[in-house]
Specification:
By secondary structure, this protein is α/β, with parallel strands linked by helices.
């Protein structure tokens, strides 16, 4: 069994409001991409990691990611859309028997969650996704904004990553041009059963400025508490992102304290 993790990291993350591509935005001093890859490696469940980035950032990504170790890390050119990036990652992993697709923006995902997904694949599941119960009341609305219904939230789940698949199943799902909001959605269209495992609140997606503040705060707290899932995070990482301009790239005045080596939350 060869498990390859694909990490799409070509998105710009407009909603985050940063000047850097989303995956390269620092959280607690380390780029999200580095934290996400470190988490995959720390899970001890992955044999190879393939990262897909914009063509102009391939060299930058290679410099900030681990160059050597028990788990090989490769960087390839991604595409304009997430699906294009995943296709590029699949092409770079022809020997994979099982594939994880993991969002770089879920940078704080605990390694134990990653291992849990892979364990289900090893047990024979063809498709596995982490899921959390939905706590908010959900409404369906029409184009005019009028409520059309209230689904029973007990049957609803918020889906996270990594999402795990038999490699051939995911390759078949990506053989066409069908679009979906996640990889499991494409697999569902093939009629395959998707199994869920309990997700983790720390696997939230860093999408908005508020998410970034929360992530920074969580990483900062690991200085005092090294709990499962955060032990792989180095909140005061001294290896600055190669994308950092001299002196750092502040968000807005007063938001962060810039040091020569890292971006540290106040």
């Amino acid at each position: 069994m060869c498990v390859v993790a694909l990490v799409p990291a070509a998105g710009m993350g407009v909603r985050l409001g940063e000047s850097l591509p989303k995956a390269f935005v620092p959280v607690g001093g380390s780029p999200m991409l580095r934290l996400a890859v470190d988490g995959l490696i720390a899970s001890a469940a992955v044999d190879h990691v393939v990262v897909m980035v914009p063509a102009e950032l391939v060299d930058d990504a290679r410099r900030l990611l681990p160059a050597a170790g028990a788990v090989a890390v490769s960087v390839v050119v991604g595409g304009a859309e997430r699906t294009d990036s995943v296709r590029a990652g699949l092409a770079a992993a022809p020997d994979a028997t099982h594939v994880l697709v993991h969002d770089a923006a879920r940078a704080l995902t605990p390694p134990s969650l990653i291992a849990r997904v892979v364990a289900e694949l090893r047990a024979g599941r063809r498709a596995v996704v982490p899921a959390l119960p939905v706590s908010d009341t959900i409404k369906s609305v029409d184009a005019a904004g009028e409520v059309t219904g209230t689904p029973d939230r007990s049957a609803l789940r918020a889906i996270q990553t990594p999402q795990g698949f038999e490699a051939d199943l995911l390759r078949d799902a990506y053989a066409g041009d069908t679009r979906a909001t996640d990889d499991a959605g494409l697999v569902e269209l093939l009629g395959a059963t998707v199994h869920t495992v309990p997700g983790d609140p720390l696997a939230f997606k860093i999408t908005t400025p508020l998410d970034l503040v929360l992530a920074d705060t969580l990483v900062d707290r690991t200085l005092a508490t090294r709990q499962d899932g955060l032990a792989h995070i180095r909140p005061l990482d001294t290896s600055a992102s190669p994308l950092d301009a001299p002196g750092g790239t502040p968000d807005t005045p007063g938001d962060r304290l810039e040091t020569p080596s890292a971006t540290v939350p106040r």
